[in-house]
Specification:
This protein has 2 domains: 1-28 and 75-114 and 163-242, TPP-binding domain (Rossmann fold), CATH 3.40.50.1220; 29-72 and 118-156, SIR2/SIRT2 'Small Domain', CATH 3.30.1600. Helix content is 37%, strand content 18%. The protein has 10 helices and 9 strands. The strands form 2 sheets. The protein has a 6-stranded parallel sheet, sandwiched between helices. Helix 1 (2-10) packs across helix 10, helix 4 (56-71) crosses helix 7 and helix 8 packs parallel to helix 9. It is elongated and about 55 Å long. Bound molecules: nicotinamide-adenine-dinucleotide (NAD) and zinc ion. Zinc ion binds next to loops.
Length: 242
């Protein structure tokens, strides 16, 4: 921990990259593992672009559960620590999460690689709506439709879809230019998010991982902080500011 605190003090540009593990202490289950949604649903049947085209109503059983889980979740103290890192050189938060908790906590520089549950999108006419405006109906199992008649979807990246290219370009640029990358709560198996830390390292950055267990990326890390994201980030900030 002390070495990481020193690395934060020295860093000119910091990037934080987060996955589902960041939100576990806010009550949102990750996809993989025993309580994960993927142990209850087959992603290709429920969250792929082909599934949505052939049976949007069926996909909405999963979308509704995700919105229910994320919409009223509150960011834990680790999120506030990430906001506070902006005072110490944080230039970007790159997240695979779709729950919007970084923004809810007040982070300004968030790049959402997999989109967000907070917006709804019509694939036919491009119309967008705020999930917030329709959340009561959604939780009563009403499926949101666009004025053009099409079933809307959350503005998240479904299996089989490309990532948002502009966001991805900004993420690569932040990673290539950072001097410290902190990778938090991701199993490091989903590409391209999993290769962000290695790209940072190749560009000369120090890379740090925060996770409750080791991942395929751990051997490549300069430092591994084992523990829950919230606990580790709060401790990091306390030491940094003491
Ligand atoms: P993942 O489920 O594959 O991995 C979660 C990782 O977090 C694991 O390595 C696990 O060891 C670690 N972890 C668990 N609890 C932790 C804690 N308290 N503190 C620190 N680490 C902890 O998730 P992923 O790598 O993000 O990739 C899966 C995909 O799931 C992404 O595409 C993402 O969009 C999606 N997803 C998002 C949310 C969300 O928005 N909150 C939730 C579930 C899944
Ligand atoms: Zn429409």
């Amino acid at each position: 921990m002390e070495k990481v605190v020193e690395a934060v003090r020295r860093a000119e540009s910091i990037v934080v990259s987060t996955g589902a593990g960041m939100s576990v202490e806010s009550g949102i289950a990750p996809f993989r593992g025993e309580n994960g949604l993927w142990s209850k649903f087959d992603p290709h049947e429920m969250a792929s672009v082909t599934a949505f085209r052939s049976d949007p109503e069926k996909c909405w059983t999963l979308f509704k559960l995700q919105i229910e889980e994320c919409f009223y979740a509150e960011p834990h103290q680790g999120y506030s620590a990430v906001v506070a890192l902006e005072e110490h050189g944080l230039d970007a938060v790159i997240t695979q999460n779709v729950d919007g908790l970084h923004q809810k906590a007040g982070s300004e520089k968030v790049l959402e690689l997999h989109g967000t549950l907070n917006d709804l999108l019509c694939d036919s006419c491009g119309n967008q709506k705020k999930t917030e405006d329709l959340v009561d109906e959604i939780l009563e199992k009403k499926i949101p439709r666009c004025e053009c008649g099409t079933v809307m979807r959350p503005d998240v990246v479904l299996f089989g879809e490309p990532l948002p290219q502009r966001t991805l370009r900004r993420a690569w640029s932040a990673v290539e230019n950072c001097s410290l990358l902190i990778n938090i709560g991701t199993s490091a198996v989903v590409q391209p998010a999993a290769s962000l830390p290695l790209t940072a390292k190749r560009s000369g950055a120090v890379i740090v991982e925060v996770n409750v267990e080791k991942t395929p990326l751990t051997p490549s890390m300069d430092h591994f902080l084992e523990g829950k994201a919230g606990d580790v980030l709060v401790e990091l900030l306390e030491r940094l500011e003491s």
